[in-house]
Give the backbone structure.
Amino acid sequence: MPTEQPLKSILKAPSTESTLPAEDQNTQTALHHARLIQHQKEVEALIVQDVEALMDLPSENTLDPAEPSHEDVIHFKKLVVCFQPTDFDAVVEERNIQDQCGYPLCPRKRKHLKSTGKFRIVMHGTDAAVVPRGNLEKWCSNDCAERAMFVKVQLEKEPAWLRPEVSPDKIKLLKELEEPERMEDVRHDIGPQSLSIRLMNLTIDSSKS
């Protein structure tokens, strides 16, 4: 006589995986967005502090902006690496309010042109460009305009809270790229016009950054 086999249900066995109720999923999503918003606020607050810290550079009033101290360079790069171009604009504007050259590694006063015209013709070698007078008055010299704008064009447009952390060494100073072959690469990337003229024409305007 055959042995009776236990009956098996043809219904699918219930899943053993736990699934959060819809309200719990909504809570988790809300917490995630809250953490992102909090992170954004923290980064924005840190950037404001960094803008203020750049008002105190360079560390000595006798330093040459062409040859800044090693300590100042390291500090400068750490402060600006998470900046957007508009954050760098804020630094220049704040320094100008204090009558300082907009380049944070320069101890000099910004220049004030005697001309009242809105534009000036600027010569650089055989190149010429019409530059807004206000752009020229942000710096003590064309050299510092070039140094500052060279840093600005390296800054990421994406907000710091949305991008991965990067090393401050990513930021290069113009003096660090003065080998002829590397400067040719820079000029090629920026455009055919003279590096100095091109950089001076970069307006400090968030709509064009």
In short: Confidence is low (pLDDT under 50) at residues 7-13, 185-197, 199-209. Helices lie at 22-53, 70-80, 85-97, 133-136, 142-152, 180-190, 195-200.
